[in-house]
Amino acid sequence: MASSRTFTLLCGLLAATLVGATLSPPAVLILGPEIIKEKLTQKLRDHDALRILHELPLLSAIREEPAGGIPILGSLVNSALNHIIWLKITSANILELQVQPSADDQELIVNIPLDLVAGFNTPLVSSIVEIHMETEAQATIRVEISKKGLILSSCSNSGRSLRISLLKKLSFMANPLANSVMKLLVPALPKLVKTQLCPVIEAAFEDMHEELLRLVKAPISISSDHLEIDLLSSDIKDNTIQLNLGAKLLDSQGKGIKWFNESVASLTIPALDSAPFSLTVRQDVVDAVLADFLPPEEIMVLLDYVLPEMALRLKDSIKRISEKVGPLAICSLKAVCWGLMSFQAADQLKHTQIVKILMQESPKLLLDKGSAKVAQMIVLEIFASNEVRRPFFTLGIEANSEAQFYTKGINLMLNINDISSERIHLLNSEINLFSPEILKDIVTDLLAGILLPNQNGASLCYPSPHFPGLLRDAFVITPVSL
């Protein structure tokens, strides 16, 4: 396939709509006709189908039942065949395969066009007589319910698709012989295609099917764990193959963490359009994968050493807070006054001040109108130095970010950017109660400078080693709208 071709991947990290009340598999992989054609064409090459065509025993085939078995005419034809020294395929090509649904949409019809040139040598003509033959093999793919998979239910060659002609005009004496040979090839060639080529087509299809099964069953790594996929059933929809997949999440030791079975919530499968394939995964699988990739964590940073400019901005922000709040007249029993003038509050921040970011739960992926967002609940604490145990103040932050999925090699990557602090809540403060909106800009920049680099840069998942052969071109990863 051309390297410029673009694929659309609706990956397991891009959820589809959950609607309806019918049983739904955790994931659905749809393979369009382009994938079927490419893989079957490659398997025909692997099984040396062209060599089989070159070795078709044309001469022995037309001698078996000459002239349709009519004795008198048959003897005349046999006499003519005695003038042929040899007859064989000199050129063979398999043209682009065509995949189309059957009349009842329950099967796929694969037409395999053949372009052949046969030559025969006779003393009646000084040069080789060449005959051009166009025909096609037709294979039928259907679902085998007992095996959950697909089978090639039939393979044949119809004489209706056969066209035979001479490549160049012959002498008056040679024309009758050439016409006799072409008439004998009309019944002989379809029989040869069925007996010689169809077994190769069946073997190529079996290989293709096994490779597809290895593709969907191979574990997908996610962080330290992996998602194990299994085939639940297969369907044929229009001219596509639909593989309904089960899934379970395993840890690094191979122990099951979570199982995903068929659910009453259904997947709305997007139309394949011009994309050769799509992979759509149910929301509960998406949430589990994202939770495994971005588990709850705690990040601590010495702000002066890592982001010194932000340390100065934070100090200025605290000065503004203190100026708005003013000194407190509340002191403890030990006569230690909590109220600080503006310069005193800001001066509490030392060069060893610490910013601590706690994610108490995994982010949530939200899809809306064709865009993907990540919502996060974050606790941010500011410590005046590395020696104090009580934070200067603690904020609860409801943030969301734009989520971008892209591929790097064969790895699927998640990039989170443009974080915004939608709501900020003051959980506690050693300065006094204040409006946390004063800190919105600096808090957003702290999250962008500390949290996002820690979340980005790692591969969210990578496909099995079998993917590159199937999905070797560019990806466009598109979220499905709710």
Task: Give keywords.
lipid binding, 7-stranded antiparallel β-sheet, signal, disordered N terminus, 29% helix, 482 residues, alpha+beta, Bactericidal_perm-incr_a/b_dom, Bactericidal permeability-increasing protein, domain 1, single chain, elongated
Major sheet size, sense and barrel closure: 7 strands, antiparallel
Uncertain segments are 1-21, 68-74, 327-343, 464-478
> Strand content of the residues, in percent?
35-45%
- Percent of residues in helical segments? 25-40%
Helices, by number, come to 11
The class by helix and strand makeup works out as alpha+beta
Give the C-level CATH assignment of the largest domain. Alpha Beta
GO cellular component, one term: extracellular exosome
Organism: Cnephaeus nilssonii (Northern bat)
Pfam families: LBP_BPI_CETP
GO molecular function, one term: lipid binding
Task: Walk me through what this model shows.
- It contains eleven helices and 23 strands.
- The chain has helices at residues 33-46, 49-54, 58-64, 71-81, 174-217, 283-293, 303-306, 308-325, 342-347, 440-455, 467-470; strands spanning 6-9, 18-19, 27-31, 86-94, 98-101, 107-121, 129-144, 149-157, 163-166, 220-222, 225-237, 240-250, 256-260, 266-267, 277-281, 298-302, 354-359, 364-368, 371-383, 393-408, 411-429, 459-461, 474-477.
- Helix content is 29%, strand content 37%.
- The strands form five sheets. Strands 16, 17, 18, 19, 20, 21 and 22 form a seven-stranded antiparallel beta sheet that branches.
- The chain has two domains: 34-216, Super Roll (Bactericidal permeability-increasing protein, domain 1); 293-461.
- A hairpin with a 2-residue loop joins strand 18 and strand 19 (371-383).
- It is α+β, with helices and mostly antiparallel strands and 482 residues long.
- The radius of gyration is 35 Å and the shape is elongated.
- This is Lipid-binding serum glycoprotein N-terminal domain-containing protein.
- One of its GO terms (biological process) is innate immune response in mucosa.
- InterPro entries: Bactericidal_perm-incr_a/b_dom, Bpifb1, Lipid-bd_serum_glycop_N.
- Residues 1-21 form the signal peptide.
- Keywords: Signal.
